[in-house]
Amino acid sequence: MAEHHSQGRGGDGDEPAPADFAATVERLEQLVERLESGELSLEGSLAAFEQGVRLTRDAQRRLDEAELRVRTLTEGEAGGVDLQPFAAPPAEDDGDR
């Protein structure tokens, strides 16, 4: 089965999910822009919406997996989770003007 990465106006919604999270978010933003532009037909809008739902679910799955990995890495010796807030990086000249 041939794989194609078309970004035309067809809106068939059969494009595979992008390989990484940032690309998934970028693709979602593109879909939102196309939907908001009004350039799509009803059928094209529905296909784009369906693809957006699939991409959103994929992005949420990736976030859930990342959270699980972080929790696994921060698990304490006794088996409990040792949750600590991330330290904010030092500000660089933000209020020194």
From TrEMBL:
One function term, GO molecular function aspect: exodeoxyribonuclease VII activity
Which major enzyme category is it? hydrolase
Q: Which UniProt keywords apply?
A: Cytoplasm, Exonuclease, Hydrolase, Nuclease
Q: Does the keyword Zinc apply?
A: no
Main subcellular localisation: cytoplasm
The cellular location(s) given in this protein's UniProt record come to: Cytoplasm
As its record notes, the protein acts as a catalyst of:
Exonucleolytic cleavage in either 5'- to 3'- or 3'- to 5'-direction to yield nucleoside 5'-phosphates
**Residue ranges of the region described as Disordered:** 74-97
InterPro entries registered for this protein in UniProt: Exonuc_VII_S, Exonuc_VII_ssu_sf
Instruction: Please tell me whether the keyword Calcium is annotated for this protein.
Output: no
EC number per UniProt: 3.1.11.6
| Any Pfam family | Exonuc_VII_S
The job of this chain, per UniProt, is described as: Bidirectionally degrades single-stranded DNA into large acid-insoluble oligonucleotides, which are then degraded further into small acid-soluble oligonucleotides.
Report quaternary structure and partners: Heterooligomer composed of large and small subunits.
Q: Which family does this protein fall into?
A: Belongs to the XseB family.
Q: What is this protein called?
A: Exodeoxyribonuclease 7 small subunit
Q: Which gene encodes it?
A: xseB
